[in-house]
Structures are given as structure tokens and as C-alpha cells.
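pls design
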């Protein structure tokens, strides 16, 4: 019974990764649907040629969706680290109901998994992971991606030809700062153009993590079977 309960708890980690991945995919689709199809300001107004920014309830929802995408990507960093740590510290004594060894583990504890900064995995330092950590920490602990969330719109010959959302300037995984100010946008960094690539890079590294975890789990099972025999 204790072994079955432990197995159920372990499967919850797998389920967390599955469901969180589905959430990210859905939210990315919703972000682009809203950006491209929703009327950003109602009622619609005649717009002069040039670049203008818009804030409205639709923009608030769009920004909130983007925030949650980064938050859930960081959740996947935590869940994947927990899964790997649990494999590397797999319980074998079921005389009592064991606690998951990864229950207090987060992405910041990844070096405790015995994998170090494994190449090709989410544990290897990368620009994608640094950005996810930066944005998640910003929106959770320090504020917003913009003091007034905006969508920018380019109008040419009386019709909209582009809409985009800017990300703040950063250097080496840190926001560019001057005293109390940390939200500058000189880099013209349009997250709606980069987001698919960011998600793709993340998922490639995550897949390497999971494939390696499966191999490691099989190795541990084989070693324990030999030791018991």
C-alpha cells in the first residue's frame, strides 16, 4: 500500500508537467488570437498613419495572458527539477508511507539533482531560461512588464499593418536599470515575434530532460534488480 501511494505521488509530478505544458500551448494560442483578431479599443476610431500605443481592457487581458505564459514556463522548470531529483533519490523503503524527496525542491536546487548543468537540458545555462526566470520574478515579485501595459499598432495608409508588444531592455539576464527605473524599451524587442522560438527552444530542452530522466530511471531499476538478486 505504501509503495502504491508513493507511485501515485510520483505520477502527480508527471501529470503536473503534462498539464502545465498543455496550459502553455493553449495560452500561447490565446495570446496570438487576441493580438490578431480582437478589437483592441471599442468603439473603433479613425487612426492617423504612424505608430500609436493602446491600452484597454482587451490589452489588460492580453498582457495577463503573456504574464501567465512565463509563470507556467517557470512552473515547468520547477516540476521538471522535482521529477529529476526524485529519480536520483528514488525511495526504496516502504515500511512507512514515504515523503517525496523532491517535495521542497525548486528549479534553483537543480544542482542537487546530481545532473549539474547537463548539456542540452533545462539545467544548462541558456538565454531562454534566463529570460523566463527574469520575467517570472518580475511579474511575481516586482511589478509589471510595463508600468501601463500597451499594445503598439502601426497604421499605414489608414489601415493597421502591424501590432506588437515590447519587452523591457535587459543585459546578461538582468533588467537595464537607472536608480529606481528598470523599464526601458530602446531595444525594440517585440515578444510576439520571438515567443514561438522561445517556446520551441524551451520544449526541445525539456524533451532532452525527460528522455534522459527515463533512461536514468531504467538504469536505477536495473541496478536495484541486480542488487536484490
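designed seq:
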Amino acid at each position: 500500500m505504501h509503495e502504491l501511494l508513493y507511485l501515485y505521488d510520483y505520477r502527480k509530478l508527471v501529470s503536473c508537467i503534462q498539464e502545465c505544458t498543455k496550459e502553455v500551448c493553449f495560452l500561447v494560442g490565446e495570446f496570438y488570437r487576441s493580438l490578431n483578431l480582437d478589437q483592441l479599443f471599442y468603439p473603433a476610431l479613425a487612426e492617423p498613419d504612424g505608430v500609436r500605443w493602446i491600452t484597454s481592457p482587451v490589452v489588460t487581458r492580453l498582457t495577463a495572458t503573456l504574464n501567465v505564459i512565463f509563470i507556467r514556463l517557470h512552473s515547468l522548470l520547477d516540476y521538471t527539477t522535482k521529477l529529476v531529483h526524485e529519480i536520483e533519490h528514488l525511495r526504496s523503503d516502504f515500511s512507512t508511507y514515504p515523503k517525496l524527496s523532491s517535495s521542497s525542491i525548486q528549479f534553483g536546487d537543480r544542482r542537487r539533482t546530481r545532473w549539474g548543468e547537463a548539456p542540452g537540458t533545462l539545467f544548462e545555462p541558456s538565454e531562454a531560461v534566463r529570460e523566463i526566470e527574469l520575467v517570472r520574478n518580475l511579474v511575481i515579485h516586482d511589478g509589471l512588464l510595463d508600468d501601463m501595459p500597451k499594445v503598439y499598432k502601426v497604421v499605414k495608409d489608414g489601415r493597421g499593418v502591424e501590432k506588437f508588444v515590447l519587452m523591457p531592455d535587459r543585459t546578461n539576464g538582468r533588467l537595464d536599470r537607472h536608480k529606481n527605473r528598470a523599464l526601458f524599451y530602446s531595444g525594440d524587442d517585440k515578444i510576439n515575434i520571438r515567443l514561438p522560438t522561445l517556446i520551441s527552444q524551451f520544449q526541445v530542452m525539456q524533451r532532452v530532460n525527460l528522455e534522459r530522466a527515463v533512461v536514468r530511471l531504467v538504469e536505477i531499476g536495473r541496478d536495484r534488480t541486480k542488487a536484490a538478486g
